[in-house]
Amino acid sequence: MDLEFSGEVWFWRGPSPFHFVTVPADECAALQAAAGLVTYGWGMVPVAARIGGTHWKTSLFPKDGGYVVPLKDRVRRAEEIELGDTVTIRLTVAV
Q1: 46 with 56: CB under 8 angstroms?
Q2: Which helix (DSSP H) or strand (DSSP E) does residue 76 occupy?
Q3: Distance from C-alpha of 25 to C-alpha of 43, rounded to nearest angstrom
Q4: Rounded to an integer, what distance in angstroms lies between the CA atom of residue 2 and that of residue 90?
């Protein structure tokens, strides 16, 4: 399953601060249909992700009935992504 969408980068200041992009509702519906086949505890969904020319592996976090994509610092630096930027993300879920 391949998905592509755009979203705004936001910051979570919790005990482990991190930047995220929220997956839009339509894409979340498709992910939820496949999640049961690939999830590994806590509803995490492993994906291959790409922004621009930067590829990485991560897992989508479940949040508020949907999912969020964590953005590693190395990805943000490589693509010059700042808080509040809108980015286009391509996700591949191996089902």
Answers
A1: no
A2: helix 73-78
A3: 16
A4: 7
